[in-house]
Specification:
The complex is a heterodimer.
Chain A: E1 5-9, H1 14-24, E2 31-36, E3 48-51, H2 56-65, E4 70-73, H3 85-103, E5 112-118, H4 145-163, E6 168-174, E7 176-178, H5 185-190, E8 195-198, E9 204-205, E10 207-209, H6 210-222, E11 227-231, E12 237-238, H7 239-246, E13 250-254, H8 259-268, H9 275-283, H10 290-294, H11 303-320, H12 331-339, H13 350-362, H14 367-373, H15 379-392, H16 396-408
Parallel strand pairs in A: 1-2, 1-4, 2-3, 4-5, 5-6, 6-11, 7-10, 8-13
Antiparallel strand pairs in A: 9-12
Chain B: H1 40-58, E1 62-64, E2 75-79, H2 88-99, E3 106-110, H3 112-115, H4 120-123, E4 129-131, H5 134-143, E5 147-150, H6 155-158, H7 175-183, E6 187-193, H8 195-198, E7 203-204, H9 206-212, E8 218-219, H10 227-230, E9 240-243, H11 260-284
Parallel strand pairs in B: 1-9, 2-5, 2-6, 3-4, 3-5
Antiparallel strand pairs in B: 6-9, 7-8
Helix pairs in contact in B: 1-2, 5-7, 7-11
The chains are: A alpha/beta, B alpha/beta.
């Protein structure tokens, strides 16, 4: 199924904003509607923002009116340091329930539901396997409020999938995210001058780069992937290796017994280690990412590369402080830009124009040189070049080579 | 820049949807730790010092039937188990490293207990320890084609008293047979003589066990009065390791692991095989210390 009219929930979250930005570049997508209670935090070109909570009656009216065929649910809170647990529960469990209710019913236009879940679903215990596969059950009942929420939210999504055979339901379970701009409990820990650890433990850690998180969500929108998929970078590091890549000392000061008392004290000092992370610092976790790879997704970063990217950003951060003013959403400005007849509509989205400009630069090359260059071009440029060549229709061998390269660079 | 260096695009889809071997993560040569947490550095340092000394001079290990360990492909090594801090596991791994025509790393399954106990949790994976979860064994045997060493007796073997030496305990619930059958990889039985005398246990100190939360705290010739170092106070018994002929696990047709009776029978047969071999080796042994 080709998604044309998409609803992104949790638009103001980091993920909602980034997914909307990524989907805006997609030509086949006619409309993107984003809902959230807070204003968007990133600049969006054509996404329509609607300020709405998770009242299912309102959401349902939006879904029906906009004839939404695909819902990307990026709202799940997986980090208890960012949200008080009562609000997190409200968002994770009640919110998911309401959004599913808004998408169900015999006359609902929704044909695809992509749910961003978390590796916390599997929990983190002493007798876990080294790699969780999608076929595995959660071995122990959830320990922390966040884990309980995730398990309950996913249960609702599975029930929706069972009850709604016409819709493709994809659940993506992400391991811990890492990258230059993402902020989680882990990135705050890694930003400290020395990284605290539990004495006597060196847990296995897996990360997925923030671009791959967006990439996986986008991949699930573009392709039909019914069922569960783990999303995690290739390779599992141990914490000492991670900290070494970050170029920081490892400080094993948390006692192996009475750890939660120690983290309570650390919390008073401003170093917040949430309970769901405590288990990870002890036992670690690995996800088997091969099912999504077999479905055709190619990860752009391994775990190690994600850590390196984060390390580079950490080193640059003090130099870039206060550089860019953060984006602020102003409803009137956005309305003006989208609706006013005075605004000159650009004929093409910005990225396509840039690609077109590059194409002109490439035009001077002869066929053989151009073909040699093709594998290094990103997909949008290849597409633009393909259109350009097809328009001129002078060199069939170049056109064929572009086709081959496009087939190879799976989106 | 960060594009995956060798995108794996298998020509044909795997026939079995559960067979995802083509999609295993690639090796990153810059890393010194494997995805299982095994550290080249730590393992190498230990191997060059302690293992080397114990193998050559202390236990003077003698190895027979090393050719029964396959050159390539996964195999499940199954051995008898003994000793408070069992010396058999590292010596079997060292034997394969030293004597085999194509030395291969051995992954040693360990109780989940160790993953939860400080220091053990950090150190054991560095030298090749893997928690004994069926999914871990399956991935190592089937997907990664590695050698996996299991002790089906588990802690029942290592905590048994000196008076019970060389009498094999129950072989678990046959889980190791099931794992090998599911992976379709052979089982190589191993008989080890000498480890019982190298680290004998005379009694168990239950009070200390409760206090420390360990699996057991044994009374050995050097522990607990020798302190932490006393744990490694092995007596210089002569160690003899015999690798027996591999047993194919594909000989019983399709999905043999579903037949519980067969699994139990095979497990019991392998236990009997190792027990017989041990009695044979013990009958020929003239001296505990000189072999």
């Amino acid at each position: 199924m080709i998604s044309r009219r998409i609803l992104v929930t949790g638009l103001s979250t980091y993920w909602g904003g980034r997914v909307a930005q990524a989907l805006e570049r997609e030509r086949a997508v006619e409309a993107i509607v984003g809902v959230d209670v807070h204003d968007p935090t990133v600049e969006l070109e054509r996404t329509e923002y609607v300020r709405v909570g998770h009242q299912h009656a309102l959401l349902r009216r939006i879904v029906q009116a906009a004839e939404i065929d695909t819902v990307v649910d990026t709202r799940l809170v997986v980090d208890s340091t960012t949200t008080p647990s009562r609000l997190a529960h409200e968002n994770n469990v009640i919110g998911t329930m309401n959004i599913l209710a808004a998408c169900s019913g015999p006359e609902s236009p929704v044909r695809k539901f992509v749910f961003k879940s978390s590796g916390h679903w599997y929990g983190c215990e002493q007798d876990d396997p080294a790699y969780f596969t999608e076929a595995m059950e959660r071995p122990h009942p959830p320990r922390t409020p966040i884990e309980k929420d995730i398990v309950e939210a996913e249960r609702a999504v599975h029930a929706y999938a069972d009850a709604t055979p016409r819709a493709t339901v994809t659940v993506l379970r992400f391991c811990n995210g890492l990258g230059p701009t993402i902020a989680t409990a882990h990135t705050r820990l890694f930003a400290l001058p020395a990284v605290p650890a539990v004495f006597g433990f060196d847990p296995r850690y897996q990360f997925v780069h923030e671009d791959d998180i967006v990439g996986c969500l986008e991949f699930a929108v573009r392709n039909d992937l019914p069922g569960l998929y783990n999303c995690a970078g290739d390779g599992v590091l141990v914490l000492s290796e991670v900290v070494d890549l970050l170029g920081k000392p490892l400080l094993p000061i948390l006692p192996p017994w009475g750890t939660s008392i120690a983290t309570g004290l650390a919390g008073r000092l401003g170093i917040r280690i949430p309970p769901e992370m405590l288990q990870q610092l002890r036992f670690g976790r690995g996800l088997d990412n091969r099912r999504l790879k077999a479905a055709g997704y190619t990860y752009r970063y391994t775990t190690r590369e994600a850590v390196q990217a984060h390390a580079e950003a950490l080193r640059l951060r003090p130099l870039l402080r206060g550089g860019d003013a953060p984006y602020r959403y102003e409803r009137e400005v956005e309305e003006f830009l989208r609706r006013s007849p005075t605004v000159r509509k650009r004929p093409e989205p910005r990225w396509a124009q840039e690609a077109e400009a590059d194409v002109d630069a490439l035009d001077g090359l002869d066929a053989a040189a151009l073909i040699a260059l093709l594998p290094s071009l990103p997909r949008p440029e290849l597409e633009a070049l393909g259109r350009h060549e097809a328009g001129n229709a002078r060199r069939p061998e170049v056109l064929a080579a572009i086709g081959r390269n496009l087939a190879r660079s799976r989106p | 820049m960060t594009v995956e260096s060798s995108p794996r695009l298998p020509a044909a889809r795997p026939r079995d949807p559960d067979d995802l071997r083509d999609y295993l993560p690639g090796v990153e040569p810059e890393r010194q730790v494997t995805d299982w947490g095994r550290s080249e550095r730590v393992e190498g340092a230990l191997d060059a010092t302690v293992s080397e000394f114990l193998y050559r001079y202390w236990f003077r290990v003698e190895v027979e039937g090393i050719e029964n360990v396959p050159d390539a492909g996964g195999a499940l090594l199954v051995s008898n188990h003994s000793g408070a801090l069992p010396p058999d596991a590292p010596m079997i791994a060292k034997a394969i490293k030293e004597e085999h025509a194509r030395p291969r790393p051995v992954h040693l399954t360990m109780e989940h207990f160790f993953k939860g106990y400080p220091l053990f949790s950090m150190l054991l994976p560095k030298v090749g320890g893997v928690p004994a979860h069926p999914a871990n064994v399956h991935r190592l045997l089937f997907d990664e084609d590695q050698l996996v060493l299991v002790f089906p007796e588990g802690r029942k073997g290592s905590e048994k008293l000196y008076k019970d030496r060389y009498r094999l305990r129950r072989f678990g619930r046959g889980g190791f047979v099931e794992s090998a059958m599911k992976a379709g990889r052979p089982i190589v039985p191993i008989a080890v003589v000498g480890a019982e005398e190298a680290a004998p246990i005379f009694a168990h100190l239950t009070v200390l066990q409760r206090l420390t939360g360990l699996l057991y705290v044994p009374l050995t010739p050097t522990f607990p009065h020798g302190g932490i170092l006393g744990m490694f106070g092995y007596l210089p018994a002569k160690l003899r390791i015999r690798f027996l002929e591999p047993i194919s696990t594909t000989q019983w047709g399709e999905e043999p692991w579903k037949d519980r009776a067969l699994v139990q029978t095979v497990a019991e047969d392998i236990r009997g095989l190792i027990q017989e071999e041990l009695y044979g080796m013990l009958a020929k042994r003239r001296s505990i210390w000189f072999g």
